[in-house]
Design goal:
Elements (H helix, E strand, L loop, with lengths): L1 E5 L12 E5 L10 E9 L3 H5 L20 E8 L9 E4 L6 E4 L5 E2 L16 H13 L7 E4 L5 H12 L3 E6 L2 H9 L4 E4 L6 H8 L4 E6 L4 H9 E9 L20 H4 L3 E4 L9 H13 L7 E5 L4 H7 L8 E5 L1
Helix pairs in contact: 2-3, 2-8, 5-6
The structure holds NADPH dihydro-nicotinamide-adenine-dinucleotide phosphate.
NADPH dihydro-nicotinamide-adenine-dinucleotide phosphate binds next to helix 2 and helix 3.
Length: 329
């Protein structure tokens, strides 16, 4: 079996030197165990946080140990009747080709028409994050004007489309013109390329003269400052992520206009998708029917081979993905 270990804790943007591909031998499976061959794995921005040695909502990765993350695999040997050979499981055992498990923490995937990897994207954690952030955190209303940052990514592109279906006016920000046209095709009302826009706050004011009611925050920094300037009274900010700060080597300044939270009576709430997981069934039913009715679309960017996983991960911070960034093993 092959696995990718954390070789060193990255300083700034990770490099491939921070990772090491290692061959290990797995134990024979015992009664109750299964052997899983991974088919797909996810790379996600939150993994950068786990590379820092600090206390958080999830323990840090350890140097010299395999990384972890969402993966979809096939059971190839089984001494556990709950997981027959040929069944597909989702796990947190990514970054490795194979693993032995007693089934704890694994989810048997339903047999559906959907591509397996959609359970790492639109039907999985990122899709659920968009849904939970909009409905359970931002309390989305059909009359809202919604601003989504990192809008063409795994979470952002789903958030944009859900908000559109709910009747909202939606504005997205992205890092390339190609991503902008993709979002326009998905029905997003206005898209700002933050890399070629001189004044984000002004650009937002131009496309949303009525103001923003909900900001789905994925980026932080200048994006948050621009959003605050354009929020309407009683607006809601769901803080999902702050990707512009994940590779910072020193503490980042807060927005200079924070007092607008008071003046505009804003509500700002951070959230972690796993706290909402008891609603996964509700989400999956809804998302499943949107997909079946062809009301929602998704993109994926696929790197091929486990050894490409570090590049795929690093690519997240360079905007190399459209939709969900995946590794096909
Ligand atoms: P994405 O698919 O959106 O990939 C990351 C994207 O972020 C890149 O494609 C890039 O797009 C953009 N980006 C990277 N660096 C910067 C930067 N410095 N400034 C602005 N944009 C940048 O990833 P996900 O959809 O998986 O995650 C999106 C956000 O949601 C992240 O902040 C993540 O941490 C958060 N998240 C939070 C969860 C929670 O439970 N709270 C769960 C899942 C995700 P572009 O080319 O447009 O710049």
């Amino acid at each position: 079996s092959t696995e990718i270990q954390l070789k060193s804790r990255p300083a700034g943007i990770p490099t491939t030197d921070d990772f090491e591909t290692v061959t290990i031998s797995l134990n024979e499976i015992s009664e109750g165990d299964i052997l899983v061959k991974n088919l797909w794995m996810s790379v996600d921005p939150y993994m950068r946080g786990r590379m820092i040695d600090r206390e958080s909502y999830i323990p840090p990765f350890q140097v010299g140990k395999a990384l972890e993350g969402g993966a979809i695999g096939e059971v190839i040997e089984s001494k556990n009747p709950a997981f027959p050979v040929g069944s597909h499981v989702s796990s947190m055992m990514g970054w490795r080709s194979h693993f032995v498990s007693n089934g704890e923490g694994l989810t048997l995937l339903p047999r559906t028409e959907l591509p397996l990897q959609s359970f790492l994207g639109i039907m999985g954690m990122p899709g659920m994050t968009a849904w939970a952030g909009l409905f359970r955190v931002a309390e989305l209303k059909p009359t809202d004007t919604v601003f989504v940052s990192a809008a063409s990514g795994a979470v952002g592109s789903v958030a944009c489309q859900i908000a559109k279906m709910h009747g909202c006016k939606v504005i997205g920000s992205v890092g390339s013109d190609e991503k902008a046209s993709l979002l326009k095709e998905l029905g997003v009302d206005a898209v700002i390329n933050y890399k070629t826009t001189e004044n984000l706050s002004q650009a937002l004011a131009e496309v949303a003269p009525e103001g923003i009611d909900v900001y789905f925050e994925n980026v932080g920094g200048e994006h948050l400052e621009a959003a605050l300037n354009n929020m309407n009274q009683n607006g809601r900010i769901a803080v999902c992520g702050l990707i512009s700060q994940y590779n910072a080597t020193e503490p980042q300044p807060g927005p200079s206009n924070l007092s607008l939270i008071i003046i505009k009576r804003l509500k700002m709430q951070g959230f972690i998708v796993f706290d909402h997981w008891d609603h996964y069934g509700e989400f999956a039913k809804q998302m499943g029917s949107w997909i079946a009715e062809d009301k929602i679309k998704w993109e994926e960017t696929v790197y091929k081979g486990l050894e490409q996983a570090p590049d795929a991960f690093i690519g997240l911070f360079e905007g190399k993905n459209k939709g969900k960034m995946l590794v096909k093993l």
